[in-house]
Amino acid sequence: xxxxxxxxxxxxxxxxxxxxxxxxxxxxxxxxxxxxxxxxxxxxxxxxxxxxxxxxxxxxxxxxxxxxxxxxxxxxxxxxxxxxxxxxxxxxxxxxxxxxxxxxxxxxxxxxxxxxxxxxxxxxxxxxxxxxxxxxxxxxxxxxxxxxxxxxxxxxxxxxxxxxxxxxxxxxxxxxxxxxxxxxxxxxxxxxxxx
Length: 195
What we know:
29% helix; alpha+beta; 5 helices
């Protein structure tokens, strides 16, 4: 299945190389290695990838792991996309990269647009943690499916209500999906590892 088939948003995608600081790429790869060892980022037997990481660039632009990259052990610049704008209400993003941005780009955009102190967003899949923390963590509406406007709007509400630059969200309409955000990469990662 081509990566674009997972994407539910309307994409203004320009297929072109993006400039990313090598240090940002190393941060993403370091976080991925840790989470891949725990099965929180990876690929299903059918090859479809799960889990993604983003880092704020400036304003509300961010670099994110591209769609269908979960099976890659190490990412290079071609496995990242730059989200230049996101309009959640219109279900639209504008992105650039050799691959299209992750299907969860709207969820990441919701965090960045809701709190200017957030610099990192990590989305993982983990069935056991999802079940264990369902009663405890703030969660999105059960009717909000992954990668949808409803999911992004629900995440934005939680981030604004939390009013902190760090937090965890259980994705109620996305069984296995958990999201952490922070004011630096290690904070966001630590919030997941604490679980």
